[in-house]
Each structure stands twice: as structure tokens, then as C-alpha cells.
Amino acid sequence: MTFTAPIQLPGLALDTQWYKRAVFYEVMVRSFYDSNADGSGDFAGLISKLDYLQWLGIDALWIPPFYNSPLRDGGYDVADFSSVLPEFGTLDEFKELVTKAHERNMRIVIDYPLNHTSDQHEWFQQSRQDPEGPYGDFYVWSDTDEKYPNIRIIFVDTEDSNWAFDPVRRQYYFHRFFSHQPDLNFENPAVREATLNVVRHWMDLGVDGIRLDAIPYLFESEEGNGEGEPKTHEFLKEIRAMVDRDYPGRVLIAEANQWPSEVVEFFGTEDEPECHMAFDFPVMPRIFYALRSQNASELVRVLSETHEVPSAAAWGVFLRNHDELTLEMVSEEYRQAMYGWYAYDPRMRSNVGIRRRLAPLLDNSRAELELAHALLFSLEGSPFLYYGDEIGMGDNIWLPDRDASRTPMQWTPDRNAGFSSADPGKLYLPVVQSLAYNYTSINVEAQLAQSRSLLNWVRNVIHVRKGHPTFGLGTLRVLETNHESVLAFVREYPGSSTQFGDSAETVLCVFSFAHSPVSARIDLTGFEGATAFDLFGGAEFPAVGADGTLSLTLGTQGFYWLHLGDAPRA
Ligand code: NOJ
To answer: Is the distance from the beta carbon of residue 26 to the nearest atom of ligand 1 less than 6 Å?
Structure first.
């Protein structure tokens, strides 16, 4: 497979707000491509697939943890923050990945689970053996398991307490996630110093950003619930100040699975910023809810909420990632409805969520996949794709936990889906062989050969998005419509006089979640007389009426991206 490079935006490398325009792609090293036939993906394999990612239009890779680890939590259980897991390659190969990505104008964002370590980490081993030694106070130890009663358990499927007894030190240690992942003690200045050093280590190697895993949970307190405690925000400000001072242009991304008013806190303020980006956890499940309920009102409500955020802040929008589709940010009533629609087999559930991939969730419906992606690429914020979703890869719910959707990338219809030439029994996880999603039909090679494939469709939408800076830089304003199944918003960008020469633009985005065709009237007060042009084919639509409304007919689960104003440049 050979790929020709798409047109790059000029001067991306000089843009300090590059992350606002970027299309991100989450890729687990283990899952993408195995270059040495040992059954596990590696850096050399990922490097060999950069051409594919560039062809797709990806600007930045988010790479989940690849550090030394016993891999009991997909690598989020780190045994050493500064080295690379040997089965993934060497530090030199990681550096080569950074260089080769940069040559393609592509950024590398790594993932840093700073809240906790593996119990195999040297710090923990020393801490349990020598309470008076230099690491004695690195973890949260207690003589009882009764401290912090207000702190909830996150992994409800596997844990029944946030405390575990250590027979060596004969004390309890606190753990927010699995019991083999003790929480670090951020009250200890040496832990904070060690954390800043890890950030420096990777930034010195040239990474463009860091996803801060589980960021709300750094500090605990007796009174609080241990999520976004004031001290956590203070420390984040410190990390950000160091990055701005020593590594300008690099970004910090918050993983905070919280309500909007709490997530925005992780952006900090204009004067005292924290993270540049934060994942939009509240919007994501509402997209799935709208698809089945045919009702857009919850999406309308969440998107209409306004929050003051610093000018450099940006959302990370996503449909799926390496975790379960979390349902923590919806009401109990909505959660039960979503379990009924999307996780009718109890095997599909995990913790407070659903452990399935995008295409199986949407029943492999092309219309739904297109609608969901059209939203992903036009909402306010930068889109994050999950590897394999661009070809509609399936999952394997007979695998444990979140491994269900971490199976090898499907490149070809050949052995091991072209992921590896190892003995199939040696793969880190089996390739998907289910009837509907068998790798012999769902793979990159087959989809490249079909001009109407999902892969080609996704690539096209990405390129249309990139041709309109409004999507990355503009504001979003939800519009009133007369149909409960329809979501409409305008993205507006006043233009800028930067080196990019971006001109002002207004784009009207309309989505129908109805399972049959509908007609809707949209309130476009202020745009009276403006003409609408389709961003994909350029076709002219009726102008907005003198009464400030526009009536549109939408096919089943259809959508429009319409330029409002004069005819767009050819
Ligand atoms: C969040 C990560 O996304 C998830 O995969 C992991 O299990 C937890 N943090 C604990 O590290």
C-alpha cells in the first residue's frame, strides 16, 4: 500500500495553537503494527504506518502509555516512567518516531498516568520495605482503611475498596483504580518534583504534548471527594507554568471524566492557566443517546451551556477511545436506556459503561457512522479518532475488560489481518473474526480499493474540515429548530490576520437523528437573505428567508455542513 501525502496547512509548525486545528488519532503501540513478528505492535511498526496516517489527514498522535509495565492495566500501570517497554522497542526508536512524525508535520502526544504507579515500580517497592527511607512517604499509607470515606470507587467491577493491605509494610495503601496501582502521595514535595522531572524528560525528547491521565485525582482530603481538590489545581498550574516557560507550544490535555462545570476548572484561568485541552466527556454519551432516542434535546442543552474558558483552551471531542464508553456523565434514567440499546448483553458492560467499539455500537449502520463522524468533526474542539474506527473495525466481547476493543489493527485480509507475521497463537490478542466484522472483509486494503468505503469517506470529511479553519478556531452557537430530532448550530470565525491568512467564515451545521426523513425550520435570525452552499459539493441551497428562518429537508439520519454567505472560493 502506498500513500501520497495530502496538502498540508502552511506553517502549522509555527502555530502555537496548533492543537485547535489538529485532527488527533489515538493509537496504542501494541495494537497497530508488529514489525518483528513477536505478536505485539511496536514503534518500528508504528513508524512504518505514518504514511497511512498522513494520508488520512492526521495531525497528531495520542499514544497511550508505552513505558515499562506489567501490563495489568493496558500499560496505565507504570513500573518506570522514563523507559520504554522492551517489546515495543527502544528509546531510540521512540525518538525516531518523534523525528519521523515531525518530518510529516505530525505531532506526538504521549500519555502520563501521573496519579499512580504499578505496584512493581521501584518507588513502591522501596516505600513498602523502608517506611523511613527516601520513598517511604511516596504513597498514601494509613493504619486503617477508613480514611477518605467520601471518595468513590471507580472500578466498581473489580474493586470494593480504595484501600489495600500491604503485608510487607503492614499498612493500607490508597488506590483510586486497581489495587495493583497505588496512588502517589502528592502532599509530598518529592513526588511533585519527580512528576515535573518526568514531564521534562519526555518534553526534552521532543514530544508535543502530554495527556494527563486521571488528573482530578491527585490530591485527597478529609472533607472533599478527592476530585479536583484545590491543591490538585494548584499543582497543575505549576506544571503548566513550567511548560509555558521551558516548552512553549507543547500542550497538556486533561482526562477529567466530570460534569462540564468541573471539567472547565482544568483549563484554569487566563492568568493562571492549567491544561490547554480537556476531553469533552459530557457531550460524547449524548451523541449516542440522540442516535437511538431520535431526540436531540439533551445535546442541545449541553451544547448551549456556556462556560468561561481561557482563550487558549480547546476541547477534545471523541466518540470512542481505549476505555469503555463511560456513562458516568448521564442520569440514571439515560444510563439504563443506553444499556438497553447498546449493551443488551451483560457481557458488553464494564464498570459504569459499555466496552464496545464504534461500528458495533452503531450496528454497522453507515448512515449512523457518517452522522456520528460529521458531529465529531464539526463540534467545538478538536476531534480524536480511535485507531480502527476509520474502517469500522469490530470488537470481541469475549475478551476480558477493555481488551474487547484493543484488538490488532486490520490492514489486509491476510494472516493476522496483516498486523503481524507471527504465529496467530502468539498475538497479544486475537484479531476480530466475528461474522460481520471479520478482518477478511474489514481492513484498510479492501477499503482503499473501494472509493465509497468508510475509510475514504472519513478521509474526505477530515480534508473538508481542514479546508475550513472555522471548525477548529470558530465559536459554536446552537440554533432553535422546530423539530426535536434536529440539532443545528453555527460555527463562526471572524477571520485572522495571522500567517495563515484565514478569512472569516460562517458554517451552518444541521443534523437529523430521526429514523425517517424530516423537514425542519431553523431560526437564523441575523442571517436574513444569506445563501447557503454545501461544503462538500458546493451546491447552492435556498437563501435564509426575510423572516430569518431556513427550512431544510433531511434524509434519514442526514446532515448538512453549509457555508453561509457568498459562494465559497472554488
Ligand atoms: C484512565 C485510562 O484511560 C484507563 O485506561 C486506565 O485504566 C485508568 N486511567 C487508570 O490508569
So the answer is: no
